What we know:
0% strand, 118 residues, 23S_rRNA-intervening_sequence, 23S_rRNA_IVS_sf, Four helix bundle protein
Amino acid sequence: MIEMENDLQKRFFEFSVDIIKEVRVLPTSREYNVISYRILKSATSVGANYEEAQVAVSKADFSNKIGISLKEIREINYWIRIIIEISEENTNWINLESESKELMKILGSIYSKCSKSR
């Protein structure tokens, strides 16, 4: 396995993996298929964009990648809240919602600092 460069990279990676694992056990009805597709796209994108930000070629590039990650984590949080409302077994989803809120705050803070410095 590739060594992670910082704790936040590791958190995003683990969060994405946890989302994937939980999506695997969701029912396969039409509505869950749509939600699964959307949350998987966002869950894999948030960490990937954060990874790209780590090798940004400029402050603007870094800010853009962090902004995309922030948008994606907000979308993930939305889909998690829907899953919690419509699922019977949602203990793991509640934990993922909590983590998504924390990650959202962290990314929001980073993005805010980037925006102020431009």
